[in-house]
Amino acid sequence: MKTVVPTLSLLASFLFAAFAFAAAEKSPPAFAQPIELEDGDRFVFLGDSITHQCLYTQYVETYFYTRYPERRIHFRNAGVSGDVASDALLRFDEDVADFEPDYVSVLLGMNDGRYRHFEHEVFARYEQGMEALLGRIGTRAEAIPMGPSYFDTRAVRMSEQAARWVKTREAMRDYYPSVLAFYSEWLAEQAQLAGVNFVDMATPMRRLSFEQRRVDPSFTFAKDAVHPEPKGHVVMAAAMLADAFQIEPVSEISLTLDRKGRIESSSASGKLENLVAKKGRIRFDYTSSGLPWVLPHAAHEGYELAKAGERFSQDLLRVVGLKAGVYELKIDLVPIARFTAGELEVGVDLQGYSQAPQYKQAMEVALLNKDRNEQAIKPLRDQWLHRKSRLRKEEAWLTENPEHPDFESRKSRFDADMQAFYRKLEELEALALEFEDKIYEANQVPARSYVLSPAE
Fold first, then answer.
1. 3-state class (DSSP) for residue 199
2. 381: domain range?
3. Do 193 and 216 fall into the same domain?
4. Less packed terminus of the chain by CB within 10 Å, N or C?
5. What is the pTM of this model?
6. What is the pLDDT of residues 282-337, one digit of tens each?
7. Residue 165: CB partners within 8 Å, gap ≥ 6?
């Protein structure tokens, strides 16, 4: 569990308002270091409808569930469709602070710009809201501000599925990515001065979109220009992992043979046992510290586009000293692949072999987390949207009309609705915890038997 930086705690209420003073210091503030989540840490994803989709958040969760099965890390999605910074502030105590987080990522801004040309008054409201929000976070946790994701103007022109409300704003269409870029750059600077990590969501999405359009001019991550499909959410998850977290290989095994083909030296990131080499055949038992980062089928295109496997899921096997030839690798008696002695000497990456037992186990974890998000987390976020869109309006009416003849009847209905809201939250949070328990049963890594032998 991380310790909140004392300076941030002391500056809580004006954490992001004191940057001009900080910038004038002769010694610049310490730059943020990559985060390493520890056993027992609590992490909140705070945001708008893109967080409410429960996709990039799900993929990041799955990364940690598979990579660190011995660390019980607790995640909470706190996204609500349509939110701007001031909306997030209204629900902050119940939806974020009560979870007692150690880290809170913040993905807002898409709605804050109001889908129009840049207007300073509009930006000022975002600036004020974000300063207050990040200040609230800074009193209890470490903030991870994130720039708005990519607004795809080409999708508005090309796709019939582009939202009508976007199409009606043609005057701003070509300008909104620049508006959001201004918001993002301002936020990046504030993060730098505060010494916290910042995630650039838009740049990798735009870069990959442009690359893919050389092959398919109609390519987009978001057909309505705003809400990414699963492939876009993988790119977002990859950006988050790359910009904010400490990344380590899943596994590394290195073996060196002497002239007689016997083991000369060995090293491994996990537990290596019963290692025997004889007549060109190598056998050992190995317990890895984690599983490869595997995602459900709908995410596979984005996984390939982001090169997620080679960047975040390396499972390396290196064997030096084998005689020239082709060798077959089996794990738990399952044939995985054939490699030349030269390939094995350089090192082979096993993370992408879907027939491997560790891949299949990781997929089981990924699918459990998919079920967790679809059956518990997404419905829970829908409840919070109902609270915002209907119950909050009724709450405001009751505050403003205490003398109205309908006050008592409407208040009675409102109280009943609020009780139902909290009952449903409790039910869904219990279901989410049940899924978490199942995930931490499924992600425990057993010892596996490896056999590398000359191919017949």
1. strand
2. 251-287+315-350+353-456
3. yes
4. C
5. 0.92
6. 999 999 999 999 999 999 999 999 999 999 999 999 999 999 999 999 999 999 99
7. 115
